[in-house]
Amino acid sequence: MIIPKYWAEEKITKQLGGSQEDRVNRFKKVYSKQHLNKPNFDSSDPNAILSYAQKLIDGVSEIKEAIKASKSKQITISRFGWSDISQQDAHNVALKRIEEAFEQIEVGKDVIRKELRVAYNGSDGVPIREEVVAKYDDVIITRNPYGSLCLNTPDVLFADIDYLNTYTEFSVYPILSIVGFLIFGQYIFFPEIYTFSMIVGIIGILSIMGGKIFAYKKNNPKADKTPEALALKTIERFSESNPEWHLRIYKTPAGLRILVMHDIFNVESSIDIFEALDTDYNYINMCKLQDCFRARVSPKPWRIGPTFREDNKIYPQGADGLWPVKEEFMEERKIWIKEYDELAINFASCKFLKAIGGTMVHPKAEAVRKIHDEYCRSDRDLEMA
Fold first, then answer.
1. What b-and-e string marks burial along 126-154, b requiring 16 or more CB atoms within 10 Å of the CB?
2. 164 or 203, higher pLDDT
3. Are 1 and 287 in contact (CB under 8 A)?
4. Under a CB-based contact definition with an 8 Å cutoff, are residues 242 and 356 in contact?
5. What residues are paired with 75 via a beta bridge?
6. Residue 188 has what pLDDT?
7. In 3D, which of 117, 107, 111 has the Cα closest to residue 97?
């Protein structure tokens, strides 16, 4: 996990390839080789004629390749640089990365000429592009592209569960997909029986759905089927399979959040855990890109007041909303943050529900919990946003 304080972007244009004199000399060398090696052959022999013609063709190709290889090209490379030390150090990193890119080009490798300015492209070797607001050892609080604060930790496992991704006790979507595909296929290839197939298909779907609903209600007469209850059931099943795990469960505006307390982890080894908990796919991808665990610890702007809701106002950072902010937007941005902070203090980002499983607490996880709970105001009687 790298979230640098200083950023720089540099661009260098170079002329690659030989000079005009180099290209002329290469041509002379190849041309002379072709004529000096001109064979003597029997003009009455068709095979000899064809063989010589092929050598001439090969010679032309060799000349073309020689000219192409030495052709002068102007190439521009731009790269980002970053540092926790100074702006100059970030500048030096950018220049070094540009030189490395030119070295790759000179040995025939394809490289990206211009790096994209995006928030999260860790897969391309570029760190998280967010303002660093505070640091607590290796726990870093940043301000994300739409203005909320986020906690970033390299080894304390958070998992966000979005209710939209929570599975119900039964699902007819695969059945609907298969039947729909079959009906569509019959409409294309066997239109004469399309209407009959559609009626049979609808009756079949309704029968399956009715049977599953009846069976579920019969076996679970008092089951709580709210999204929160279903998500909690998934977590509890995971806990039953891993009784030594200490899990803290928080309620968020869109779902649940898990904080694992008994041990520390890394993202690469946590994918199976994410999947077992039905973790939000976007959250998993974000963790992969950033190589860290992450939790939003302040409200989303459009949830906390009419000023931010009316026009979905995002704090000014230039056209792309990324850090570092252009100088001409800095003053306006400071005003935005002041207004946001004054409203955000009246809201919680999540609320603590309960802890389940084991009781072991890893010191690092406990330190992160304290930071998380304080920023989120998770133990206060406040509206969530």
1. bbbbbbbeeeeeebbbbbbbebbbbbbbb
2. 203
3. no
4. no
5. 14
6. 63
7. 111
